[in-house]
Specification:
Blueprint lengths: L1 H26 L1 H9 L1
Helix pairs in contact: 1-2
């Protein structure tokens, strides 16, 4: 049970991070490109 909860939490955090990254990318594509090119 604990493993499932930690997996669920991890996936949830990753999903939220991905959503945040997309929102940031939409606002500042140049910044994201610079980060990716480093």
């Amino acid at each position: 049970m604990a493993f499932e909860m930690s997996e669920y939490t991890k996936q949830n955090v990753l999903a939220q991070a991905g959503t945040a990254m997309l929102a940031q990318a939409n606002q500042r594509p140049q910044t994201i490109l610079k980060l990716l090119q480093q």
